[in-house]
Amino acid sequence: MMNKTIALIAFLMMVPCFAFSQEVKVIKYNDLKKIENKLNDTTYVINFWATWCRPCVQELPYFDALTTKMEGQKIKVILVSLDFKRELDSKLVPFVKKNKLVSEVLLLDEPDYNEWIPKIDASWSGAIPATLIINNKNVVIKFFEQEFTEAEINKTVESLIY
Predict the structure, then answer these.
(1) For 98-120, how does the pLDDT look when each residue is reduced to its tens digit (9 = 90+)?
(2) What domains are there in the chain, each with its CATH number?
(3) Which of 14, 135, 143, 149 is most buried, taking the most CB atoms under 10 A from its CB?
(4) CB under 8 Å to 3, separation ≥6 — which residues?
């Protein structure tokens, strides 16, 4: 009985470690384009950010809260990091774990920004934070080159999905 109790306690102590062990997938622009082109009724909120960008980091909790708030609805928040691939394990993964991000986190490994940025939106200067909200079935495409407050992102997303 004592061994079972010790095993149970050890397991319960490890649960928090697994609960936030978010994997960060490294992608190329073509992988991101596949997400953008999905023909389903899901609204994708794609936020471009980096760990070194203070306004990006300040608004991340608002996007992450959308994932929880909209659970069960046809909305998916994807956080696309523009950090350097070489800093994936030293900066990005620890940042994601420390901040317990629940939204999907992708690292876009495309160093030639001038090649892919205009494909996201022709008006994008390249500044971050930037957000693309897209729903191909309902023909919704909105691009924002700005930092959001929690109220602004909630109001924007809700106005596009209802």
Answers:
(1) 999 999 999 999 989 999 999 99
(2) 24-161 (3.40.30.10)
(3) 135
(4) none
| Interatomic CA distance for residues 114 and 109, integer angstroms | 13
Average pLDDT over residues 132-145: 88
Q: What is the DSSP letter of 87?
A: G
Model pLDDT for residues 56-69, shown as the tens digit of each residue: 999 999 999 999 99
The contacts of residue 62 (CB under 8 Å, 6+ apart) are: 148, 149, 150, 153, 154
CA dist list (Å): 128 to 33, 101, 116, 125: 19, 19, 14, 9
Residue 139 CB-half CA count within 13 A: 0
pTM across the whole model: 0.84
- Average pLDDT rounded to a whole number, residues 137-149: 89
Query: Could you give the angle at which helices 29-36 and 113-120 cross, rounded to 10 degrees?
Result: 0
Which pLDDT value is given to residue 162? 65
